[in-house]
Specification:
Layout: H1 4-17, H2 35-38, E1 47-54, E2 57-59, E3 62-65, E4 69-77, E5 83-92, E6 98-108, E7 111-119, E8 139-149, E9 154-164, E10 167-169, E11 175-177, E12 181-191, E13 195-205, E14 219-233, E15 237-248, E16 253-261
Antiparallel strand pairs: 1-4, 1-16, 2-3, 4-5, 5-6, 6-7, 7-8, 8-9, 9-12, 10-11, 12-13, 13-14, 14-15, 15-16
Organism: Psychroflexus longus
Signal peptide: 1-22
Keywords: Signal
Length: 263
């Protein structure tokens, strides 16, 4: 049976360990660049879209795909910027990776809440788009909350998969939802006018089962650092770029992702 005391110790160590990383002005990491570098106009537009190119795709310690890919993000945003609802899609250059997600996010003061319906159907070519049966679906629904501590540039996040292909088999042979949790803490350790360097650490576990969505046992599965900067083009335009180095000791691999936000 899974040891809940072991999980509690894991969470406490995760939070405590991040107070040793360093100091710097807060910026969200690992996937976000300095906000000002992405905003070229101040006028409000309720609908927007972005396009990102990557040499590979990393997510919570996963190497989602090892091939170069593009990611498109189309969304609605309120005038205060606090609420967003959108569609996110990724496709690999070689056609071996395909993903199509729906999401909503809401920011309140230092809190950020999100619900993502993640549909990576790369390994589910026959999956029906609106089939959410955990025995057959290519979807999983992830609910998360993030809190930002500005005074000590720390960001803490907790995410739980509440539905979909996050399952385990009981001793009686029943297929059950694992309700896998992922917790992460991140710091910006150094920053300048158009760059920042952040570090982060994440852990995964389930209260239902020893195995979970991210691995066969609970533990730290995502250590990394992200360097982000803006590159000037022709003295008028900027191109946000980032490089993330990641290590996953549960899966025993590492990877380096380079991303370019084209617009």
């Amino acid at each position: 049976m899974f040891n809940k005391i072991r999980i509690s110790s894991l969470i406490l160590f995760l939070c405590a360990s991040n107070f040793m990383f360093g100091q710097g002005d807060y910026q969200p990491i690992p996937d976000q660049l300095p906000k000002d570098s992405l905003e070229t106009e101040k006028s409000y537009r309720p609908f927007e879209f972005n396009l990102t190119m990557k040499n590979m795709h990393l997510w919570r310690g996963y190497r989602v795909t090892d091939e170069a890919m593009t990611a498109a993000n189309v969304y609605y945003v309120t005038s205060d910027g606090n609420f967003k609802a959108g569609l996110w899609g990724g496709v690999g250059f070689a056609g071996n990776y395909t993903e199509f997600d729906y999401y909503i996010t809401y920011d309140y003061k230092n809190w950020s809440f999100a619900i993502w319906d993640i549909n990576n159907y790369t390994d589910f070519p026959e999956a029906e788009i609106f089939n959410y049966d955990r025995r057959e679906t290519s979807h999983f629904i992830d609910v998360s909350a993030t809190y930002r501590v500005d005074a000590i540039p720390l960001q803490l996040g907790w995410s739980t998969i509440v539905q979909g292909r996050d399952t385990y088999i009981t001793s009686r042979g029943d297929l059950r939802n694992a309700f896998t949790n992922y917790v992460e803490a991140s710091y910006i350790v150094a920053s300048g006018g158009d760059w920042n360097l952040g570090v982060y650490v994440g852990a995964a576990f389930s209260f239902e089962s020893e195995t979970h969505f991210y691995g066969d046992r609970p533990g730290f599965n995502n250590y990394g650092a992200t360097y982000s900067k803006t590159v000037k083009l022709f003295d008028r335009h900027t191109l946000p770029v980032s490089a993330t180095a990641m290590w996953n000791n549960l899966q025993e691999y590492g990877a380096l992702e380079v991303a370019v936000n084209l617009f």
